[in-house]
Design a protein that fits this description.
CATH topology of the largest domain: Rossmann fold
Number of strands: 11
CATH class of the largest domain: Alpha Beta
Largest sheet: 6 strands, mixed
Number of helices: 9
Number of domains: 2
Strand order of the largest sheet: 3-8-7-4-5-6
Radius of gyration: 19 Å
Order of helices and strands: EHEEEHEHEHEHEHEHHEEH
CATH architecture of the largest domain: 3-Layer(aba) Sandwich
Length: 237
Amino acid sequence: MKLLLTRPLDDSKRLETKLKDFNFSTYLAPLIEIKFLEIKRKYYLTQYDLIIFTSKNSLKSINPKIISYKDVITIGPGTYEKSIKLGYKNVIRSNGGSLDLIRLFSTKFKNKKLRVFHPTSNFANNALENFFKKQGSNYKKIISYKVEKKNVDPKKFNEFIKQESGIVTIFSSKTAESFFELIQRENYIEDCKNKNLILLSDSIRKYLGDLIFKKIIIAEQPNELCFIKELSNFKKE
């Protein structure tokens, strides 16, 4: 079975390695690029009560050796494991998205007013910002990396999309937007109808407009482990 990996190149290569025993014919055709930004020194001079990492890229954007903090909350097992490898202490794992993180914060910290640091992308949603504004904590969100829509390997993408069957994998709303715009621009709409689609979460679906696929599969939880499980189940069908 042919499999299209659309994550940034390093992430796609890593995922391809994890899928090596699945016998997929993989096509690495990233539809977004990540560009890390320089973090101003003043952000490293503050003692934070809590740092929030919502992705592995947010972890990559911060120097763990010079940031001061008490606790860390991460989203997803992959981000959690990466934070431990980088040496972060007192890490609390949220398995879901922003809403699950908010529930976890409320359970752990109750009504405490904390100094919260949240490095994130230029396309982060405002759910956490809105929550902390009402909750009263000193919440600081900084853009530590940028996500840019780009068809990194047009030849590889075209080679996959013209196949008679295959699986499209999409991990983020911005990747979905990039995919949708590319399909519309290059008139690949009919080519989607014989492809299966696997999404990290149901919230991504709306960014694909009215595109029609043979089958749409949603990961049970929005993390890589559940995503791989869906691929595994797909192979058994």
